[in-house]
Fold each of these.
Amino acid sequence: MANETKQDSAGKRVAIFCDGSSLGNGQVASRAAAVALLGYKGFWRAVGEYLGVATNQQAEIAAAAVGLESLKQPCQVSLFTDSRYVVETMNGRFRRKANLPWWERLDRAAAPHKIQWEWTRGHAGHVLQEAADAAARRIAAAGHVDPLILSNAEETIGTIEAADLRG
């Protein structure tokens, strides 16, 4: 019982894999979306948001925010993204020169949590990253969040344990 209390006070350990997509990046009629896959003890849930007109960089920032905003209590988070822009900025190595409202949203979402920001190679066959990427592209193309897209992402990844996250 004491061990449970200690773990609860430190927050649940959660993994988030996120990705953003902007179809027509940089064009007036771009369509962007953000998706995050949240994992806790081998169970995964997909969340997404249709962003409308936004750049790829903005969609990447939003994807991290969408995942963190979905957490109901402060957690210890390992957040994986294929965006070096997000990881390096949140780790304090890049200065914020643009996209300030997007960074403010991410800062608000990150505030209650202890987060380890981790870069993962995109389009390299990692099941979780590929599932987040595919779902973000499908939502951007559809122009709205379709629950079936999120459900398909969850089915794609099934049950993946924490030990399998990096592979």
Amino acid sequence: MVQKISAVRGMNDIHGEGADAFDYLVHTAETTFKQYGYRSIRLPIVEKTELFCRSIGEVTDIVEKEMYTFSDRNNESLTLRPEGTAGCVRAVVQNGLAYNQIQKLFYTGPMFRYERPQKGRYRQFHQVGVEVFGLATPDVDAELIVLTARLWEKLGLENLELQINSLGSQAARVAYREKLVVYLTDYKDQLDEDSLRRLESNPLRILDTKNPAMKELVEGAPKLMDHLDAESAEHFEQLKAHLDDLGIEYVINPNLVRGLDYYNRTVFEWITTELGAQGTVCAGGRYDGLVEQIGGKATPAVGFAMGIERLTALLMDHNKVPVLAQPNVYVVLVGDNVQRPGFVIAEMVREALPHINVQMNCGGGSFKSQFKKADRSGARYALVLGEQEVSDKVVAIKPLRETSEQVLVSWDDLTEHLAQLMPV
């Protein structure tokens, strides 16, 4: 027997209800983004390695440990994208979209990180991302948060907690960093291995440690919020005022710093307690210096990314997954000479009523077996076509989800009748 080939560890097939949830989430997200005036952008999966070293930071865990990097035939170092923001910034710079323009963009697709696979954390995972270029004011920060809150409402997701913080300006962060290093150095013997490594390279990440043994130490650290520059403090107050006006509840988390070097000022995360350790389902913030860092002219920017696998797990756990492709109508064909007219009728309905999904029985089968398939499909109605119906040019419409009687409708009146049964 030939040995089966399995998927690469941490890179999973998405099928069945998982695929339905994935499609529903992406469809709902993209529809919501368009409501707010955001446009789609499609980005490459592979980028030059230098892009991520320059944007994410060479001393981050992602660049040091997690990237899938390889040399191509021209000996150029390339990387499967570990996140979407850097590639989007590269695209707007390269295509002249960033300078002196406002761009509101969204994208969807796979990301890749070499991590230890566990629930909610995979080596190939998918994100929906939103990025705004050319606006420095806190109202757009608030808009992104409001937009995500609106999406949770549409999806029927509850019990998500919004955490916010401000990292201040780059200059304020540098000054705070020095104070934090002095504090942590005094307690160096209490730092775990990861924190010792980050003490010199990225000390702010120590504040976000998940090690319970370091909780008391971190809580006693100087607070970045107490060291904000005046402009950043005012920016943060205005953001909170916008959220208060709209009734969006939030928690200020002074230890929320985000894992990437390019953030400044506003950072935020939406958290759930229902997925174990992988509780962050959406995260983002402002990164005003990144466009210039990647070679463009100075341009303010802000964005977020949400993890599709984690959100779809929530949707499935709460039975919030409608099947977008589920048929409204199932065509049952009984007899030797009904297949061809059945095809014509199915296409006639699809063309006239695009909001109605039509599934036609293929492969034959008895009257009884076809009705079993129709019932399992989830359709509301069966269109039954036998040899007598073809001769009389009528179709029997049989309800599958209600107790009303079957009716005969002429082919000419079929689409009008279905439109009344299932309006847009």
